[in-house]
Amino acid sequence: MKESGDKKAAGYSREAVLASCFVLLIALFGVTAFVTRTYHKRIHTLADEWYASGEQALAADRAEEAVTDFRNALVYSPNNSIFQFHLARALIAARSWDDAEEYLQSLLSDAPGSGEINLALARIAAQKNSLADAMRYYHSAVFGSWEQNPIEMRWNTRYELCKYLLERNDEKDAEAEVIALADNTAPGDVERLDQAGTLLLKTQQWNRALMEFKQALARNRRDVDGLTGAGTAAFQAGQYADADAFFERLPKGQREKADIAFMLELSRQTETADPFAEGLSARERARRAAAALRTAEARAATCSQSLGQAIGATPAKTDLQKTFAEAEGKKREWSESELAMHSEEIEAAMAAAFQLESLSAERCGEPKDAADMTLRLIARGRSSAGQ
Pick from 165, 187, 182: which is nearest to 174 by CA? Predict the structure, then answer.
């Protein structure tokens, strides 16, 4: 009986030991899990802290510091694509193009349609003066996906592309991009209409620019940028009465700025000198045409003399001398009195005046005298109108 009791006690002892070991093992698992969770939590905290520090440094234009902070964040979270992208941004700011491109190309392989990544690569290509790559990445960004404000970001990206091309003096490529930008500008967005209009001015698309500024002014008739742009576009398109009207609506201080005052004064002078203006009497039309011809002949004589050539030389040898001689041969028919009676001759007389001014400008440079400048503007206005 005693032996049986001893065996039973031994069995109980083994079970107790096993139970104790099991409890201990569970406790150890619990401690390990707790330590692991604490460790990972601390790792994530450190990663987030370094990331936040990098963002602050980047916002404060401390690019090198931001690079270090983002690299430290990636030590604790090496596969975090957000950290990698922001490190690439910091590297771009630090002008470390190759390192930034390496990160971005890796990210692009996983998200080829990302607007953000393509835009960053476009900026690197632009800095490297690689036009083909810059165009490709900019277009991918324009048509790519954006997590926030996609319409706004696509417009901003195309606007950046337009400015990049204009900075390169690449007006051929810029022209198409600026048109696309204008086409994608909301009719009610005054600020962006003004921005698109300004780029259209830079690509010398005067009539399209005028359309953009008019849309802006339809929303805000006192928009200073819109009035300035519309006046400039109208002036360049040869619509001088419209240019005068737009500039006149500007605040006095803006209207008196040198470039605007210059265009305004020339617009007004052109209005009073143009024989093709509507509503003129036959006598006034003739007076203006005769005055224009006298102005052009005087300019031709001065230009020819500066070149050591007599304008009335016989026989006439240069184009300027020949055109002057032809005008002199029509002196009686193109007098003010004769033009008043034969208004059909005004077109020919003005064509001769325009030709004299053009030849003088080719040989002696654009005129600085107001009357000659006005005549050149009248010619340009006629040409813009397809007449």
Answer: 165
